[in-house]
Amino acid sequence: MTPDHTLLTDRLKLRMIHADESERFADAIQSSPSLYPWLDWCHSAFTVEEAMDFLMHTRLNWLKNNAYGFGIYHQQTNDFIGMVALTDLSPSFNMGTIGYWVCDQHQSNGYAKEALQALINFCFTQLHLTRLECICAPNNALSHHIALSCGAEKEGLARNRYLFDGKPKDGIVFSFIPK
Q: Which domains does the chain have, with CATH numbers?
């Protein structure tokens, strides 16, 4: 998959976030404190240098076909809304893990659901994966709701399923399989 790959929905354009958008990305993280409890790399003092590093790693993952992180943009205004990503791609099991976040100022507009549905469709129709997982903190009710609204099956609690600040945390596993 090439880094210039774009997904379109009715309102959104999903594409790689370019290096020259590092300041815009850092501003979005700094102004979105609702993300901090769920994403350990997000914090109020997130710098442009951290953004540049994050975006460079995102691009490298694209080039290596390890993961695909899409920035979410409004088609009409080009506002940066958030991200959806296929991470932890596991070709030997034909599956991957997906994640999503939306900047505080753009929440409650249905953007996460719209972008996540586009990512799920991309994973099943273009990458031909047969399983996707979304791992959410047990008390992240909003993320649970978004996963379920996109057709996820709640499979249960997985102990020590992910790391947060270097410490193992339990996670609720939601799965998606193609129809």
A: 7-129 (3.40.630.30)
